Amino acid sequence: MHHTWRPDHHGFKGEDTIVAMWRYHTEHNGWSDIAQHITIDPNGEIWLGRDWNKPPASARGFNGDDRAGPFMFEMIGDFDVGADPFGGKQRATAVGVVAMLQQAFDLPLATLKFHNMMSGKTCPGDSIDYERMLDDVMRKRREMGQARRALPENEPPFHADSLAANAIITDLLEDMQSRESGVMAAFEADADACTHHPRHHEEAGARAAYAGQGRREAVPLRQPDLRPHLVNLSMGELSGSGQWTTTRQDVEAIFSEHLPRALERAQAAQRPLRLMFQAHGGLNDEAAGLAIARKSVAWWLDNDIYPIYFVWETGLFESVGQLLQRAISGKRDFADYTSDPLIQETVRFLGGPKIWGVMKQNARTASSPDTLSETRQVQPGREGGAYLVAQQLAAFCKRYGDAVELHAVGHSAGAIFHSWFIPCALDLGVPAFRSLHLMAPAVRVDLFKEKLALLVGDRGGIRDLTVYTMKEALEARDNCAGIYNKSLLYLIFHALEPQRKTPILGLEESLRADADLSRLFGLSGGQGRAEVIWSQTPPGMVDSASRSTTHGGFDDDRATMGSIARRILNRGDDGTIVDYPSAGAADRGLAQAPAAPTLSDMLKQDRRSDDIRIDERRGTRRALCVGINAYPTQPLAGCLADVESWRKALDGAGFAVTRLLDQQATRDNIIGQLKQMIAESRAGDVIVFQYAGHGTEMPDLNHDEEVDGKDQAIVPYDYQTGAFLLDDELGEIYAGVPAGVNLTCFMDCCHSGDNRRLFIAEGDQRQRFMPPTQAMIDAFLDYRKHVVGDAGAARAFAAAAEPKVTYEVSFAACARNESAWESQGQGEFTARATRILETAGARLTNGAFIEQVRAGFGKTPRQHVQLDASSRTAAKRPFLQPLPQPSAARPERAAVPAPGPSPIPDAGELLGVLRSVERLLQQVQLQQTSTGDMQRPNGGIQHPPPQSLQSGGPQNR
Description:
alpha/beta; disordered C terminus; globular
């Protein structure tokens, strides 16, 4: 559910507005169609939009694909507080649309999602109350009756024709024969329709007339002196839309007006006109590319170098950042050796090579004489933008000869751009480039060798070549958006090229492994024809310096940029230049509203996209949220909604949230994420583990469950292999919580149920219990024997021999003999708990929190929320707050007390004594069990029956 924001109700002009919106989405954004499936206007009328059998451009990471996806509807209006009212016929239509869709596809109520649940925007307006909307939809569904039509099992929601079309598009992408189709498939999956820019849908009449006028007037930037230095490209062609447009006349003006004047000034100063052509990295969209130009153009000019920037709108590669997010649905906390291969394969599966391939094709198309075919024949009006520049450059150099020097600079994917532009320019008669400087080049080794390497040398088309890149150790310590724990070049190497482990020029291992490159750069001894400068160079180096420690930071690194300028000017270490502005310096003379960080920003600042929040007073706050709906058998419907509710509530409380959803939530992934979160925690930290899914019971293999001989277990997605996660195993993991760390668990599942009702869902009500079948038990026993290797009790007994004091507090959705229910698309425990966390959580104790949750179930609850903790004082402890730091240890008392009244021990001393007794008793128990006598003597120690899965096991009580 979206709103347009602009136009609002007053700006709605009927069909003209709908047409203008369609044109903006297709002609400006380059999408195949309007973003939404339907539009609801202020009169409650419905305008048809995108084919309903195709995924929308709704919200990044949530658009689905040609197999399954969401239905998107957009409401004309601005429904933020104080703007348009959301009511009358428009509200009635919106409610009716949702109700009919949910009834037709047998969907739970909570499948209605506001755009603001998946983004930082207010869309569909912060005046619209989500709960009230759900209530309206529920009433409408009741009015419509209970007749529902379920989709046939295993039938995808889209027509077979759509799937066939997708197969055709995939083939076209792989062959790169259709640039437009390639772009559609590559970036619409992660498009976000509601950018809410004030220009997007204003002036509907002017937008509607766009096609007839040929070119609309762009909103100019407030820095007109950039125009002589910018060539803006989109999909290889001159860009006629966006923040900055470039026409054929603009390119001609650079070479016929601006450069001749610059040459006159250079000749007056008795120096050549040094022209530098720069192509930015593939991590930048148009806005980021423009920002680089704004910051640098005055600096280049101050150093007597005339820059021409290719801003080639490679923001398509931002989709790779979205793929990283989708690959893990949150921040990675796996160990590097575990997570990175998983991310690589997930990014590859989600279409990373296609997206990267489209971007590479854009670079190639820019220098093509015909952007719509492979022919080398020039087609007037269809030339690539860089090809037009090369044509004009050839004529300019022919006219002015030796008075002009040519240089080129490329960063990251900019090296791919120059692999096509420089040979193109040379073929058109441009004289040799005096220097080429490639920063962290993301070009394939084979393309570099084919297009550029043979040109390097005194008699070639590139006189001097310098590569600036990181040593292998720094590449491995870099990260991509804080998710992939290596540099972008490694992600390209492993996941984005069609062939895995494709050699990339910027990687040290690729340079050294290729004999030709080793000779070219002098890496195997001797003098090479080119030079590589490894970052970080020692302090004090100037002409051959680079200090960048991130892939995205080279073009903002003072040492690297200074070295490039010195080499262009041939000034060496002793010459003087104007220093490059410090990293992050504000743009000259340009005040702009802060923009959302791009993937490039994240890499340059060397930070995670969802930075862990650290407060000196509160420590680090992390959360792992797990939800599984898509079980192969007995699927649930509310667990992903539970995760989203917990994510929203915990995010508001300052937690950095990692999510594992459906297929991601395997046993190994859950254990790995949980262990990593605990291992990275320190005293003063607060960490949370939340689980929503099925629970079950399995045979007790270590005989520590005296009551019923069964172990409680949660049911990961891969449970059919026997990969259940037992309460004993969670107890061992919890035992690793460092002293002073507060671990709180929220478990919306159960471990018993009414078997007669498990498969008879009342409306959308379900029990979160999977009764163990014999097949499940057999798989479990086989898994424990052959995978875990602990079919006996050895591991559990070893853990019991050295019990650790744990610090976990667990909230369970129900008592052991009850069922945890979900209804209306969400767990009943989660719905109440997250509401209290959002409204009053910071002011409560654990005990007060559970009492409020219990009160939310009313006077006759069908499930009773449980508090289970490793400390008797847990109920009095502040909810989700750091633990008090321990004081210094007390000196032990003398063995023989002094005469006089016995001192009264304090609570801490009593607790220490009790723990010592507990250890002794557990050792006795271990000795009894190891002799094979499993019968407890009368009066022997009895563990209290576990109340819930999260207790940490009896050895930790």
